[in-house]
Amino acid sequence: MIEWRLECHEQLGSTSDLCRSKAIAGAAEGLAILAHMQSAGRGTRGRTWQSIRGNLSFSFLLRPREIAALIPVMPFLCSIALYDAVHSLAPTKPISIKWPNDLLLDNRKMAGILIESSMDRASGWIVVGIGANLVAAPQIAGREVSSLAEAVANVPSATEFAQCILARFSDILMRWERDDVDIVLGAWQERAHAIGTRLAVQRDDSYITGFFKGLDKSGHLLLQTESGENLSFSTGDVLLTG
Known about the structure:
About 25% of the residues lie in helices and about 30% in strands. By secondary structure, the chain is of the alpha+beta class. The strands form 2 sheets. The chain has a 7-stranded mixed sheet with strand order 1-2-3-7-6-5-4, with helices on both faces. β10 and β11 (about 230-235) form a beta hairpin. The N and C termini lie far apart (about 40 Å).
């Protein structure tokens, strides 16, 4: 069981930047860093993550012995933990995961995850950054977003929600260590957009449309195109189109 140590800061540039710096300096596994405000939050594919007081911005550090085996499954472990934390507060609301690790509330993004790592054999590390709209959703051009406040009357503090995610992550990590990746991928799929959901998946500079057909053994997204061709994606932006 990981012994978590949560540091809370009034304001930071980026929780992941500080967590990564401390990882490089030798910080032990279990460090978690939360900021009530961020001035330089980062999302996937170089996007910025807008900070609103009361929302969640935090990162945590892992130093797994089997880092090469863990890195490919981390998006699924983290998104399951995030889903379960939200579901515990809003069990009747339409919550789902969009491949690989965005959390949707009513088909609108409520939270995202950024995972960074170093494979150095002597001192490898994984830093997970999680941003969640708890009290309010920022306005983002071209993106539909939501907040937990739309689903529950009593929104937890960022600190309380971070602690809930860490506890849920510990649970699913132990399950992966005890069982295998197939169990994790099955648990992820139970929480994800349904088989047959219409998607558009980015490949190079364009999007390919089709229907979600599940995951392969490596966690790659399977898409069946309008013409019936079956494609596999290991990366790429995903849009729900229907």
